[in-house]
Amino acid sequence: MPTVHEIPAANYDTFVALPESVAIASQPMFDWWVHHWMDASHPLVRMQQAWMESILETIQVEVEFLTACAVSGEKMSKCFSDPDTLRNPTLLSSCYHEVAKDMTDAHLSRLGKVADLPKDFRQRLWEEIC
């Protein structure tokens, strides 16, 4: 029986010299091995991916809210830049109430989406664990 020192070491040339048919024939086995290796040894990577997806959703919710803030600010600036609106307290009040309603709706929508984020995150983690 040969000792460890007598067995030739595998090197890059050995693998490059394999016929193409061997490489093609072994590809399904390699794919299977990589798939199961990733499943077994990287649960933290999958959990981090679930966490990052939740962070992305949080950022999207904040972007939607900031967009609503910008639109509301634009409406207010139009109201304040119109001399007729500034002279008429009823129009100014109407404009202000419309902007306040838009901001309230955007904030309530934001709160509803943020409340769902922990549930979605727990569901993603559970899917990754199982």
Short description:
By secondary structure, this protein is mainly alpha-helical. The protein has five helices and no strands.
Structure commentary:
With 130 residues, this protein is mostly helical. The protein is 86% helix and 0% strand. It has one domain (4-129). It has helices spanning 12-16, 20-41, 43-81, 83-87, 89-129. Helix 3 (43-81) packs antiparallel against helix 5. The mean pLDDT is 80.
Q: Shape, please?
A: elongated
Question: Which stretches are poorly predicted, pLDDT < 50 over at least 5 residues?
Answer: none
Rg measurement, Å: 30 Å
The chain-level structural class is: mainly alpha
Q: What share of the residues does DSSP label as strand, in percent?
A: under 5%
Order of helices and strands: HHHHH
Q: Can you summarize the main beta sheet?
A: none
Number of domains: 1
Helix run count: 5
User: How many beta-strand runs?
Assistant: 0
**What gap, in angstroms, lies between the N and C termini?**
45 Å
Q: Mean pLDDT, as a whole number?
A: 80
Helix content range: over 70%
